[in-house]
Specification:
390 residues; mainly alpha; two-stranded antiparallel ribbon; 2 strands
Length: 390
């Protein structure tokens, strides 16, 4: 059963959510209940059967648990060697091993359509496991406790729909002693998030899909495509933001402050501002772990004549990888490269023409113009993402 897609899921979730509210007033019980609640929810979410061969199959939940244990082993072995010898080769091996299941899920189906060693949320789990590997390499993580690590990786509210949490941030909530006031504040935040999620996903997104997106998707011609672009943009936002709000709301009930994923993205003044507001947990992950590391390596190794070129190339590589993360289909790759070029172009314009009114003028007319332009650049990108143009 896919999380947050039906009212039945919310009804079942009440059996772990209601006890979690009362357990929140007792730190030890709260942590125990978080672990115990994860197991049945994983069984509910992952109840498909995956065929390994013509005669052999495995329950999806077993696949998820085996994946998580293997990731813990990889991280623990890497931590062991890192403490004794900080060798970059071992780091690269650990990263590759952590990436292998996701790489297989992305690329093996291109050659073998019956490949089934994957599950919903694999990419999100991969990002969390990689965050731990990178944190160890950067000396930000000095120890890994099995129960804490596995709970972080398999945290059921966010396992399949994000947002992408960080290990150190999760560990702070795991260790935090909540007061009665903290529990009530978390509950208040959770209720607000969950009800806003219902508004977004089950009312606004559903209405847009039924009365706008589905009808216009049957049309042809430039006006039909333009209408589809607007419909898909608003539908995707309300649907995805609704998922995120549900996940964050459920997280707060368990005392885990999962980071927010959207911050009014359609009022962004430029494409850089947009990626600081849209799917923030993903864009910040790519910024911290790929873009910043690429820039550091490029400047240290003097790969380019100036740092600006490194920045432009870094944008294109980072967003290209983000596109591939969504899928190996052409429209996902083009979508990523499109945003990489936009980010590079925006940075170049801002540096080349510092008086550029669209980017820098504080007057309401120019701010409005930049917001409208950015919205249409984003909407066209989502039209690419939808695959309608391909």
């Amino acid at each position: 059963m896919n999380p947050y897609t039906s009212f039945l899921y919310f009804g079942i979730a009440l059996y772990v959510i209601i006890p979690a509210i009362f357990a929140g007033f007792f730190r030890k019980i709260s942590k125990i209940w978080l672990v115990l609640a994860t197991l049945p929810m994983l069984v509910i979410q992952y109840n498909n059967i995956r065929a390994l061969t013509e005669t052999t199959a495995i329950n999806e939940v077993i696949l998820v648990i085996v994946y998580a244990v293997l990731q813990w082993i990889i991280a623990s072995v890497f931590l062991f060697f890192h403490k004794r010898n900080s060798n970059r080769f071992i780091f690269y091996v650990a990263v590759l091993l952590s990436l292998l299941p996701l790489l297989a899920a992305k690329f093996v189906p291109l050659f073998r359509t019956d490949y089934q060693l994957f599950f919903l949320g694999l990419s999100y789990l991969t990002f969390r496991s990689l965050d731990v590997i990178i944190g160890i390499q950067d000396n930000l993580i000095a120890s890994i406790f099995p129960l804490q690590y596995l709970t972080f990786l398999l945290f059921f509210p966010t396992i399949s729909s994000g947002p992408i949490d960080r290990y150190n941030r999760f560990a702070e909530d795991w260790k935090r002693d909540r007061t009665r006031e903290d529990v009530l504040q978390d509950l208040d935040k959770a209720v607000h998030m969950i009800f806003t999620g219902f508004l977004y996903k089950f009312i606004l997104a559903a209405l847009i899909k039924q009365y706008w997106l589905d009808p216009v998707s049957q049309g042809t011609g430039i006006f039909a495509i333009a209408s589809y672009m607007y419909a898909y943009t608003f539908y995707l936002f309300f649907d995805f933001a609704g998922y995120s709000l549900f996940a964050i709301g459920f997280s707060y009930i368990f005392g885990i402050h999962t980071p927010e994923n959207f911050n009014r993205p359609f009022i962004s003044r430029d494409i850089r501002d947009f990626w600081n507001r849209w799917h923030m947990s993903l864009s910040f992950w790519f910024r911290d772990h790929i873009y910043n590391r690429f820039i550091f390596a490029a400047l240290k190794g003097k790969w380019f004549k100036d740092r600006y070129t490194a920045s432009y190339v870094g944008y294109i590589i980072t967003m290209g990888l983000m596109g591939i993360w969504h899928g190996t289909d052409l429209h996902y790759i083009v979508y990523g490269l499109y945003h990489g070029v936009l980010l590079a172009a925006t940075t170049w314009l801002d540096r080349r023409y510092k008086g550029n009114r669209l980017l820098n003028d504080k007057r309401i007319v120019w701010q409005s113009a930049s917001i409208v332009l950015t919205f249409h650049l984003v909407a066209f990108g989502l039209l690419i993402f939808s695959g309608r143009l391909f």
